[in-house]
Known about the structure:
The structure holds two protein chains of two kinds. In chain A, about 10% of the residues lie in helices and about 50% in strands. By secondary structure, chain A is mainly beta. In chain A, a hairpin with a 7-residue loop joins strand 9 (about 125-135) and strand 10. Mean pLDDT of chain A is about 85; it is low at about 1-30 and about 45-50. Chain B is of the alpha/beta class. Chain B has two domains: about 1-30; about 40-135, 3-Layer(aba) Sandwich (Oxidized Rhodanese, domain 1), CATH 3.40.250. Helices cover about 45% and strands about 15% of the residues of chain B. Chain B has helices at about 1-25, 45-50, 60-65, 80-90, 110-120, 130-135; strands at about 40, 55, 75, 95-100, 125. Chain B has a five-stranded parallel beta sheet. The longest helix of chain B has 23 residues, at about 1-25. Chain B is elongated. The mean pLDDT of chain B is about 90. The interface of A and B includes residues 39, 91, 122 and 246 of A.
Amino acid sequence: MGAIAVRQVSPAIGLSKNICHLPFVVGHSHFPMRLYLLLSLFLAAPAFAQLKWDTMEQNVKAKPGDHEIVATYRFTNIGKTPITIDNVHTSCGCTTAALAKNDYAPGESGQIVARMDIGSRTGHQEKSILVTTRENAKSPTVLRLLADIPEPIVMKPSFVMWTIGESPTPKTINIKVTDGFPIKLLKVEADNPDIKLEVSEVRPGVELEVKVTPRDTKRPESATLLVRTDYPTDNPQTYYAYARVR
Amino acid sequence: MTALRQAGLILVIALGLAGVTAAIHPKRPALLAPPADPNEVTLAQTKQWAGTVLWVDARPDAEFASGHIPDAVSLNFENWPEAFPRFLDSYSPDRRVVVYCSAKSCQLSREIAEKLRASGLTSAYYLEGGWEAWKQQNLP
């Protein structure tokens, strides 16, 4: 990925001086000079650049068992004056961003290390890290952390519910291993004998259909469905679904 | 006539440069505002649902402990495995679930509401302005 510079653009500088020295007035037409001025306004070069980032966006794919996502953003002060990073702020309490120090001399490099707790997050996540320098306090640099956190097992839905007095007809939970995960579904059981399960294999070890039926719905019932797997081999995980009569 | 041509040329050049800037500038504004999210609700809307709302607090446990909407259930990405069964014990299909977090800038409420819908809830909303909006209304 190419380097990206964070530029501090000055206002159009020295315009009045330029007007004095323009040699483009020809006859009664001032058009070339006007055109020159117009182009000058649009094409005025930035005064200087200070922090140059190796990348401002990191895309990380979490692996099974990961508890956090770590992304590093390296930068260099390519300006001619020292720069002070006053504040590094993240868009989510789940993400921290660490900076070894605040002041960077011309030519000096540093890095910001962002860590995102995965917790129960799944799917595509987008977090921002705002970096504010003393020299450009009103325009923080926005670093982006894009994370893909695969869900090893998908249960749709992850709970079934009946209201008191409702007909105790079966409700179905589909349990499926996400492609690419070496997981085998071994067994599904309920921790309450008054909640009956009927398990059928759609694809052996990979996809199950579980019909859940309460014995009756005269009173509140609660059950946890334990989905046993063989993965990882040293500490096989159990996943949970729920049934309620309320 | 010459002046008119010159003005036209300046306009064409300006529009061309503006178009290039609009296409490539990293801080260009969105030309079309994103559609309003039907799952985001205001405090005024939730007042119309009085008595049927199940409040879900998506903030970290420490913030929940220091103050929350009365009868709210704590449910966040860190405590989900233990808290989701407790949430189900409070939930019933006739209740509207409204998730909140700290303030308007906070995304946790939207994310938790999405996760609840993915879990099987037919509707889970999130509160515009979050806990900050609640406190600004001097609600308990």
